[in-house]
Design goal:
alpha/beta; Rossmann fold; Helicase, Ruva Protein, domain 3; 2 domains
C-alpha cells in the first residue's frame, strides 16, 4: 500500500486502513431516493470498494485520477466500471444512469469543490456518504447560530438533510493526518425549486458570509442598500435557509423594480 500513498500524496489523500471503519462507511448508504447506481470518488486501493461490491442492490462506478491506483484496482477487482480522470471535470450526469448516490473518502484539498459540484448534480444525487475533515463535516452539519455555521452549511442544507455520523481518528489512516476526520450523510429533501434562482441564492449567501462579522445591512451592500428590516441588524450565521431564501427573493425583486 505504501507505494500508492506516495503516488497520491500530492492529492491530499490519506489511505484508510481500518476494516471496521471501512465497512461502516460502505454500509451507511440507505438507498434514500430509490437509486440503483453508486459512484465512489477516489477509491485508491479499494478499501471501501470491496464492501460496496458486496451490496448487490447497487451498480458501482469508480472515479479515480491516479494512474497507479487505476492499475491496482483493475488488477484486484477485474471488470469494474472505472471512470478515469478528474471527477470535477467529468460530465458525470451524462455517464451514469440517474439517480445515483456518491460515496468516498474524499481528499481534504478537494472536498469543498466536490460539494459545490454536488449542488450542480443535486437533481440526480439523492444521497451522499463521505469521509472528510472533521472541521468541514461540523461546518456542513451546523445549525443556524453556531460559530461553525457558514456558506457550505446553508447551501447544502437548502437541498439536503445533513447528518454527522461518526468521528474517525488519525491512527486509522496511512499516513495519519494531523486532524480528525468524520463521516457524514446527505439525504435529499426532494426540493426542486427554492422559489429563486440557485445562482442568485448562492450569490446572496456568499456575499453575506464574506464579511460575517458585519450586520447584513453592511455585509450585503454590494448587492443592495435596502436589506429587509427583519434581517438588517442580524449577522449571516443567525439566519436559516428560509431566511436566506426570503432575502434573495427581496433583493431580486428590488432589482426588477429598479429596471
Amino acid at each position: 500500500m505504501t507505494r500508492f500513498v506516495k503516488a497520491k500524496k500530492h492529492l491530499g489523500q490519506h489511505f484508510l486502513k481500518d476494516e471496521e471503519v471501512s465497512e461502516q462507511i460502505a454500509t451507511a448508504l440507505t438507498g434514500h431516493g430509490g437509486y440503483k447506481v453508486v459512484l465512489e470518488i477516489g477509491p485508491g486501493t479499494g478499501v471501501l470498494t470491496k464492501y460496496l461490491l458486496q451490496n448487490h442492490r447497487f451498480q458501482l462506478y469508480l472515479a479515480e485520477i491516479d494512474t497507479e491506483s487505476i492499475t491496482y484496482l483493475r488488477r484486484h477487482y477485474g471488470a469494474i466500471n472505472l471512470l478515469e480522470g478528474d471527477v470535477l471535470n467529468m460530465s458525470i450526469e451524462e455517464r451514469l444512469t440517474k439517480p445515483f448516490a456518491i460515496i468516498g473518502n474524499l481528499p481534504y484539498n478537494i472536498s469543498s469543490p466536490i460539494f459545490f459540484k454536488l449542488l450542480d448534480w443535486r437533481k440526480f444525487v439523492p444521497e451522499m456518504v463521505c469521509m472528510i475533515q472533521k472541521e468541514v463535516a461540523e461546518r456542513i452539519c451546523a445549525p443556524p447560530g453556531s460559530r461553525t455555521y457558514g456558506l457550505l452549511s446553508v447551501l447544502l442544507q437548502a437541498y439536503y438533510e445533513a447528518e454527522y455520523l461518526f468521528t474517525v481518528p488519525p491512527r486509522v489512516f496511512v499516513p495519519p493526518p494531523k486532524v480528525d476526520s468524520a463521516v457524514i450523510r446527505l439525504k435529499t429533501k426532494h426540493i426542486e425549486d427554492l422559489g429563486c434562482k440557485q445562482s442568485d441564492f448562492v450569490n446572496v449567501v456568499k456575499t453575506a458570509f464574506n464579511q460575517r462579522r458585519k450586520t447584513l445591512r453592511n455585509a450585503l451592500k454590494p448587492l443592495t442598500n435596502c436589506v429587509l428590516p427583519l434581517y438588517a441588524d442580524k449577522r449571516a450565521e443567525t439566519l436559516s435557509v428560509a431566511d436566506f431564501v426570503a432575502l434573495t427573493k427581496d433583493i431580486v425583486e428590488q432589482r426588477r423594480s429598479q429596471n
